[in-house]
Write a structure and sequence with these properties.
Blueprint: H1 10-21, H2 24-36, H3 40-68, H4 72-79, H5 87-116, H6 129-137, H7 140-160, H8 162-189, H9 194-202, H10 211-225, H11 231-236, H12 245-273, H13 284-293, H14 299-330, H15 337-351, H16 353-356, H17 372-399, H18 402-410, H19 417-442
Helix pairs in contact: 1-8, 1-12, 1-14, 2-10, 2-12, 3-4, 3-9, 3-10, 3-12, 3-17, 3-18, 3-19, 4-5, 5-7, 5-14, 5-15, 5-17, 6-13, 7-8, 7-14, 7-15, 8-12, 8-14, 9-12, 10-17, 10-19, 13-14, 14-15, 17-19
GO cellular component, one term: membrane
Membrane topology: Multi-pass membrane protein
Keywords: Membrane, Symport, Transmembrane, Transmembrane helix, Transport
Length: 447
């Protein structure tokens, strides 16, 4: 069996976990889902779900991972041997595979935008950025090139392992992402009509929230914290005993909320300032970003730098997804990490072809009224993720050894019995009941 790697420091683990969370979920998916789901009311629900549902679940995955010392599949095999509970880990690996299959398509778009953002190639006078986005997403050749480059970067970093690959890159570029995000926010807030965008984003109007909007807010809290598919089980399995899990989870959750807030501050003032529609969906970020930077001195340079950092944030999330898949097939030591990573990346590229062609060749083919891209997104974010989270909640509250759970929760920190009791109550009652009620609301059983 190959030697088991560990994170070199607590900050390395937190930044890697935050990197897994802060990516397309917070920067790309959150703004457009907020736009189509009513603005401020959606954001408020997202915060509530993140703190009361997502954070306890994140702590749970940390406990399962470090408590077992194993990746997604073997963690449940070790903690509940010869039982159906091992299916949670398998669901996680399948879910990560499906998620990365469409995630790599968006990652490919970001990659192409990075290439086009070389000064003078993207920002031009009278440029219609909506048409640029449509051209990129509807061109199979361009989309495939972007996907291939994106997956190749994933392959290289994950093949190097935890310390030399994932942790090292996160430590260097995550702080830079925050810095350039602040630059964009400052510029966006100084635009004319910016306050109207802020009101849309921050002022709750619950008349615009539907059952589907509530489900989206719940799914977004799962998606943006990378919980439900045991990504954080795998990451925390590389963690030493001295790190306090609840405080680490709180740091990751807070960073995620802050980035989502910054994304809203950056996007919605610009949307209203330039007369764009906040409900235009997945293309929102790709249209707003160039529009904002076009109004800035040295806008081409800043756009290029920000897109590179946005690409990194996208990659840090995809690293965690690919790591779950790779670690599931390499932890036994019978297979080489490099070989498994190469094979997984090739299979991922093939699996992503339907989603990649959903804006072009396959745009007329629909699954339950959705394109292949949207159907995969909905299946992963709004069905499989909540199911995974529900099963994890039941597992840790009713099946996992209670002494081990308590030990992992309290170890390495000053949190007392009261905090543990509160967290355990949330996992035993509030988390599973909330997930069930939200699902029932989507079936029209609650008006």
């Amino acid at each position: 069996m190959e030697p088991k790697e560990q994170w070199t420091s607590k900050i390395g683990f937190i930044l890697a976990s935050a990197g897994a969370a802060i990516g397309l979920g917070a920067i790309w998916k959150f703004p457009y889902e907020t736009g189509i789901s009513g603005g401020g009311a959606f954001f408020l629900l997202f915060i509530i779900f993140t703190l009361l549902i997502g954070l306890p679940l994140l702590i749970s995955e940390f406990i399962i991972g470090r408590g077992s010392g194993e990746e997604a599949i073997r963690a449940y095999q070790k903690l509940a041997p010869k039982s159906l509970w091992t299916g949670i880990g398998r669901l996680g690996v399948v879910g990560c595979f499906l998620l990365l299959s469409f995630y790599s398509v968006v990652g490919g778009w970001v990659t192409i935008y990075c290439i086009l953002s070389i000064p003078g190639m993207l920002i031009k006078p009278q440029q219609n950025y909506g048409e640029v986005f449509t051209h990129i997403t509807s061109s199979p050749g361009i989309t495939f090139i972007g996907m291939a480059i994106f997956l190749l970067i994933n392959l290289i970093v994950v093949a190097f392992g935890i310390q030399k690959g994932i942790e090292k890159t996160n430590k260097f570029l995550m702080p830079l992402l925050f810095l350039f995000f602040l630059v964009l926010v400052i510029r966006s807030l100084t635009l004319n009509n910016a306050m109207e965008g802020l009101r849309f984003f921050l002022q709750p109007d619950f008349s615009k929230i539907t059952g589907q909007g509530v489900l989206y807010a719940l799914g977004q809290s799962f998606f943006s914290l990378a919980v439900g598919f045991s990504c954080m089980v795998t990451y925390s399995s590389y963690l030493g005993k001295k790190v306090n899990l609840p405080s680490s989870a709180a740091s990751v959750s807070l960073m995620n909320i802050i980035v989502s807030l910054l994304a809203g501050f950056a996007i919605f003032p610009a949307v209203f300032a330039f007369g764009l529609e906040p409900t235009q969906g997945p293309g929102l970020l790709f249209i707003v970003l160039p529009t904002v930077f076009a109004q800035m001195p040295f806008g081409e340079v800043f756009l290029c730098l920000f897109l590179l950092l946005f690409l990194f944030a996208t990659l840090t999330s995809s690293f965690s997804l690919l790591e779950v898949i790779v670690s599931a097939f390499t932890r036994s030591g019978k297979r080489s990490r490099v070989t498994v990573t190469i094979l997984a990346s090739i299979i991922m590229f093939v699996a992503g072809i339907p989603a990649a062609l959903s804006q072009s060749t396959l745009k007329h083919i629909h699954i339950f009224g959705k394109t292949a891209f949207d159907a995969t997104d909905f299946l992963v974010s709004n069905i499989l993720l909540p199911v995974g989270c529900f099963l994890i909640a039941i597992f840790i509250a009713h099946k996992m050894d209670k002494q081990l759970v308590k030990q992992q929760f309290l170890e390495g920190g000053r949190l007392g019995q009261g905090w543990y009791t509160c967290w355990h109550f949330l996992m035993k009652w509030l988390v599973p009941i909330t997930i069930i009620l939200v699902f029932l609301s989507t079936l029209g059983l609650f008006k």
